[in-house]
Write a structure and sequence with these properties.
Blueprint lengths: L1 H20 L9 H8 L8 E2 L1 H11 L1 H16 L10 E19 L2 E24 L3 H67 L5 H35 L9 E2 L11 H11 L1 H21 L5 E14 L8 E13 L7 H67 L5 H35 L9
Parallel strand pairs: 1-4
Antiparallel strand pairs: 2-3, 3-5, 5-6
Helix pairs in contact: 1-6, 3-5, 4-5, 5-6, 5-8, 5-10, 7-9, 8-9, 9-10
């Protein structure tokens, strides 16, 4: 009973398209175009190309904004204001009141005083400059500049990952859109077969088993179509999230997927070694570790400081003992300090930094080998995907011709409904496989472009 009710619901759902098709004639249109035009609840959606989606993501995606903020921080860090090359300027001021008691001798006479209050006011300003600190300042500043260049490479690497993630979602959406067309066409063919079976059964040309088989096939195809629609909505929402916009915004994917048919492996390897963001960042990190090691060596050297100081002091005491005292003046000087032994902390820090520098070299070599392997693997995946695409393209043409011929034979009673059903499944599966291979081919091409360091440049 439940199966019958569910099938009736599916029949009603899909019958809306056919009820409208009885009143409208749409020549020279695909199944997808016919479905969109006939469904009064669905408006024609604007096509969002992958290039436009990437541009929107690079402007609005929150991860992109976060990475831009990190890059600004690195840019601030390399400023001369953070380099210790500028002098320091400080101002001090103090005032206090003292309550004292004692005696004083003046002119041979001794006089005492109690609760004598005196007020002291003083202010000073000092200008200081580090003249030499073992070149640590120089190496630290060079490291800050190098770290900024690393942040630029990390930013490009983050953009590449976002583009690849968007490509996965976008071309999955394109695939599901194409698969929806194929599944809907399958529903359409199954319905026509089911209606034909009903007519033949009514006139005694088929058995009830044939009718039930057609009914089950129609139900299965309808369920697959509905499930694909749910996946399509999910994929669309995921793209909208990456584009930082409302999930209610509807759009159509660009099904005109374009790709290059030939890449040279040697050229890809050469570009990767020169332009790959991860590889360049690792090289820069080795330089940062080397600069940091040189900076730690500077800890063994003395530090020389220059300073200029100006001070003004005023002392007020009771007038019967003394009057006001005021002093002012400036001082120019230099100081030097040299920590000969700090308990071994500098030696340990120097040893650890030497190990960190060696580890950075090992990491660079590892990334170099991995990059070479990744490029070769991505190239092989692309070449295989390209060969499979051409093969599936031919298979789709064959299954389409087979289905057309099977329909003619089925209408003339020369083949059974099962034979026709098999031809139908072969054609639908051929369509789905073709679209899947096409989108996978495009994603493999984007991976090649990312490894060779050309992905972000395509959208700038």
């Amino acid at each position: 009973m439940k199966t019958k009710i569910f099938f009736t619901f599916l029949l009603f759902l899909t019958s809306k398209h056919y009820a409208q098709a009885d009143t409208l004639t749409l020549p020279n249109t695909t199944v997808a175009e016919e479905r969109v035009l006939l469904d009064t609840n669905v408006q024609k959606n604007a096509v969002l190309s992958f290039e436009d989606a990437v541009k929107i993501a690079l402007e609005r995606n929150f991860n992109v904004k976060i990475e831009k903020g990190k890059q600004k921080q690195a840019q601030n860090n390399k400023s001369v204001l953070n380099s210790d090359y500028l002098p320091t300027l400080g101002v001090n001021a103090e005032t206090y009141t003292a309550n004292t008691q004692g005696y004083r001798v003046s002119g041979g006479e001794k006089s005492t005083y109690q609760n004598s209050k005196s007020t002291v006011i003083g202010t000073s300003g000092e200008l200081g400059f580090v003249l030499f600190n073992g070149l640590s300042r120089l190496f630290n500043y060079q490291k800050l500049i190098n770290d900024y260049k690393i942040s630029q490479l990390d930013f490009r690497l983050a953009l590449e990952q976002i583009i690849l993630q968007l490509a996965d979602s976008y071309y999955q959406y394109v695939f599901l859109s194409q698969q929806e067309d194929a599944l809907y066409e399958s529903v359409k063919l199954s319905r026509e077969r089911y209606e034909r079976m009903k007519m033949r059964t009514r006139y005694g040309q088929n058995t009830s088993i044939d009718l039930l088989t057609a009914e089950v096939d129609y139900s299965k195809d309808s369920i697959k179509w509905l499930e694909n629609q749910a996946e399509l909505i999910k994929a669309r929402n995921q793209i909208n999230v990456m584009l930082a916009r409302s999930g209610e915004i509807r759009f159509a994917g660009d099904t005109a997927v374009q790709f290059k048919t030939r890449y040279a492996l040697d050229s890809l390897l050469e570009k990767a070694r020169k332009q790959n963001a991860e590889w360049q960042a690792k090289q820069r990190r080795v330089q940062s570790e080397q600069l940091l090691f040189r900076s730690t060596i500077g800890s063994w050297m003395p530090t020389v400081n220059l300073y200029a100081r100006y001070s003004l002091n005023m002392n007020k005491t009771p007038y019967d003992f003394t009057s006001e005292q005021e002093s002012q003046g400036y001082r120019l000087g230099a100081s030097a300090s040299w920590r000969l032994f700090d308990g071994g902390k500098t030696a340990v820090r120097n040893q650890n930094q030497r190990i960190a520098m060696e580890n950075a070299e090992f990491e660079k070599e590892r990334v170099a080998l991995k990059l070479d392997s990744d490029v070769r693997l991505a190239y092989m995946v692309f070449e295989n995907a390209l060969a499979i695409f051409y093969a599936e393209q031919k298979n789709l043409e064959r299954t389409q011709k087979t289905l057309k011929r099977a329909l003619e034979l089925y209408n003339s009673g020369q083949i059974t409904s099962l034979d026709y059903r098999q031809a139908q499944l072969n054609y639908i599966n051929g369509q789905i496989t073709y679209y899947k291979v096409l989108t996978d081919l495009k994603k493999s091409e984007l991976k090649l472009q990312q490894l060779s360091g050309e992905l972000v440049q395509m959208f700038e």
